[in-house]
Design goal:
heterodimer; A: alpha/beta; Transcription Regulator spoIIAA; 2 domains; 10 helices; B: alpha+beta
């Protein structure tokens, strides 16, 4: 006999009530399944158990209210789960497995007498998709934060002496970093009233025409503010390649080492280093 | 971790440049280039890859070993389907640029190379081959 209106096989017992009745056993089965399949040593078991029961209860509530979309509470619960997983370095598929495995557990438990409510599957799918979105959103947030931190980290302006700043540049000098470095240097020049700045490029692997152009622009901007820049740390190999490329920095003071650059600034400031007697 | 040579890398924005430099660095190291030559390789790769990003937006580089007349070297082939260079002779002169650069990229890269070929057809694209032999 076909009965299209009633989705539960018993006909008498609605799915949410059935799920509620079997709550303990279903949760135990789900936890066991996750113990076997999730393989996530970075997440402790209690957290897993808590997420399981909250998700299960949220699902049953949603079924009872007849909703097919996720409530705000359920959404924030899933977001919290995904954030936790993302921060602990779990993979997206582990996060998806966590949510979708509930389907598997329910199918196994109610194999022939399943409360095959269409809404149930839709809800679990929606839960899985939401957790994916939240997971990826969190990852993107982490990546954005890290690249910002990296950018801040990579622009250290160090006062070396009264009136002398030093700026060790490490890594590739691309447009974004050149911009950040210029801004930081100019604001430090204004803040400290420094007359000299040492741009040390020992940590820059290659100086191509764009890098040189960025350096020249930074130096020109500092000059407008009354500060002279000295480029230091030009390694022999880089000097040779710069000449071959045809880069001309002859209107900028350059020195081989940071120490030589500092000596240059001392000379200009009429300071001398004297060995103590 | 050493990548296979030949290797082809896509170049489609400034963020692809570090990957190109790293791959060229590794390939050059595995051939035993000295420090100056290694710097030449990476600088030229940076220069030519940036040309693709600036003018063609999308292209690729193939990194491969090159052998001939008893010597070994590295060959970098940059290809793009960009607008091409209408006046190749001028583009190879110092200080000429249609963009905001110094106009030293192409002629500079040529000076860094032992062998350098450029082929460009307006509307079709540009192909640059850069070879450095081990000394």
């Amino acid at each position: 006999m076909l009965d299209t209106d009633t989705h539960t096989d018993t006909g008498t017992e609605p799915a949410p009530a059935l799920l509620r009745r079997d709550r303990q056993e279903t949760l135990r089965a789900w936890n066991e399944y996750l113990d076997r399949e999730l393989r996530a040593p970075h997440i402790d078991r209690r957290t897993v158990v808590e997420f399981c029961s909250s998700l299960f209860d949220g699902l049953v509530e949603a079924l009872e209210s007849g909703r097919t979309t996720l409530s705000d509470d359920l959404q924030s619960l899933l977001s919290a789960l995904s954030v936790e997983f993302a921060e602990r370095g779990l993979t997206p598929s582990q996060t998806a497995t966590f949510v979708f495995s509930l389907k598997h557990v329910l199918n196994e438990r109610y194999e022939n007498t399943a409360p095959t409510v269409v809404g149930l599957h839709k809800l679990i799918d929606a839960m899985g998709l939401h957790s994916m979105d939240a997971f990826i959103g969190r990852r993107e947030q982490i990546i954005r934060r890290q690249s910002q931190e990296l950018l801040d980290l990579s622009v250290p302006v160090v006062p070396l002496w009264e009136g002398i700043l030093s700026l060790p540049i490490i890594g590739t000098l691309d447009s974004t970093r050149a911009q950040a470095i210029t801004e930081k240097l100019l604001s430090e020049i204004a803040r400290t009233g420094s007359r000299y700045a040492l741009l040390d490029i020992s940590g820059v692997p290659t100086v191509d025409t764009q890098t040189a152009q960025h350096l020249a622009k930074t130096v020109a901007a500092a000059r407008l503010m009354g500060a002279e820049c000295v480029i230091t740390g030009i390694r022999p190999a880089i000097a040779q390649v710069m000449v071959a490329l045809g880069i001309n920095l002859s209107n900028i003071a350059t020195r081989f080492s940071l120490a030589e650059g500092l000596r240059y600034c001392f000379d200009r400031l009429n300071l001398s280093v004297v060995r103590g007697s | 971790m050493t990548e296979q040579v030949p290797q082809t890398l896509r170049i489609d924005d400034e963020a692809s440049l570090p990957a190109v430099r790293r791959a060229v660095d590794e390939a050059g190291r595995s051939l035993g280039f000295g420090l100056v030559d290694q710097t030449k390789l990476m600088t030229a790769a940076s220069e030519l890859a940036r040309n693709i990003v600036l003018y063609a937006w999308d292209g690729k580089v193939t990194i491969e070993h090159s052998a001939g007349a008893g010597r070994r070297g590295l060959r970098l082939t940059f290809e793009d389907g960009g607008p091409g260079i209408s006046d190749l002779e001028r583009a190879m002169q110092d200080g000429y640029s249609t963009g905001k650069g110094m106009g030293l990229g192409l002629p500079g890269a040529k000076r860094l190379a032992h062998e350098f070929f450029i082929d460009s057809k307006p509307g079709i694209g540009t192909r640059v081959v850069f070879v450095l032999w081990r000394r």
